[in-house]
Amino acid sequence: MLTFLLLLAALAYFSQRTNPTLEHFRAHLTALGRDRLPDGTPPAQAGVSASTRTASGAATKVGRFFQRLATATTPAPDIVYESYQVCSIATVRYVTGAEATYLGWFGSWWLLSEVRVKGSGAATLVGRGSNDRSDDELDKAEELKQTAVTLKGERAYVRAARAYEAAGKAFSQVASTSKSDAQLAAHEAGGCYEEAYRCFRQAPDGSRMADHQAQSLEHAVNCFLRCGTSGESRAAGLLCKLAELECAQVSSEEERAGASPGGLRAAQIYQRAAHLYEQAGDGRHVYTKLREAETAARFGHYTHGVHAYDQAMDVLRHREMDRLVLPQYLFAAGLCWMAVGAWGRLDGHIAKAIDMLPTFEGSPQCVLLQTLYECAVVGEADRFNATRATFAARTHLEPWQLRALNAAAATVDIEELR
């Protein structure tokens, strides 16, 4: 019994030590793509007879195309990797809709299951890739990508990023000149530029390479947008990363001063991302709209922020689960109206908020908005300042919300109110 337990413990320890990583799976998938299609069919059996391949040489082109298909439809974001200490599970979702699940154990990967999509097999692909020039350009792009993969494995992140950029540019040229491989090449180009962004970010001095990261993200977005509706959600996700990068470049001094140009650019990028999500029918559009509103308000662009809040809340009010978070956004929108001195609009906003969410009435946030509105209209300057200070002392407020309250006080002519 003791021997068995020791053996079991040793097995568990060795399994944990040899549990394959995501990077190991990427390398495995890359190697697998050299001789298998996304559905697992060897190119040699892809509907072209041996005699035809020998006689015409078409097999070389078809084989190259299937090799491109296998590698182009497995970008990093389409891989779902889960580690369970002693083993790992990786699921790959291809552009065609095919899906494969792999088990990683003892440093190796085994195929557990796969889903093939009717109409995406070899029979529908034979005859494409017949342009020799296009084939050569794709081969060159693939070589550049493999170089980048190797450099990333060696942790030479800056060199890898440059190689990914070169591969992305090469795939983009194919997308511009080839009709048959245009969408596939554009998707692959986007994946290369996205990997370039990741490598720049992982570089030892990545914090000083924000411009390079932003440029790679912009190229990736443009490439995925060339893939039609299938690339809109992917592009929107990258735009959100670009917005985060833009926010990080705003200094604390600029943020405190308000009306930061960088903050406005970030909010506008979120706005574009939300629009793409909405076009793609992706439910993340409303949450991206909220990020747009919060970003605009955080950096002092209150008018932009309040309009984005209104658009998001018009959607959230119809979602039962999301109604729980409505109060904080109703309050934030009210602060934005106060910060720009739009007291009349604030009164209308309070009425709309109570109509939208009756439970908002009587809440501390609603009472504050109503009290400050009354003070501003009646001219009770001391009460205005005392109420503002008391609420700020008792309630946790974000830095931008404190600045909004201070800006609201500045819009009231205290001397006139006295």
UniProtKB/TrEMBL annotation:
Membrane topology summary: Peripheral membrane protein
Record keywords, A-Z: ER-Golgi transport, Membrane, Protein transport, Signal, Transport
Signal peptide bounds: 1-17
An example Gene Ontology CC term for this record: SNARE complex
Keyword Hydrolase included in the entry's annotation: no
Biological processes annotated in GO: intracellular protein transport; vesicle-mediated transport
Family classification: Belongs to the SNAP family.
UniProt-recorded name of the protein: Gamma-soluble NSF attachment protein
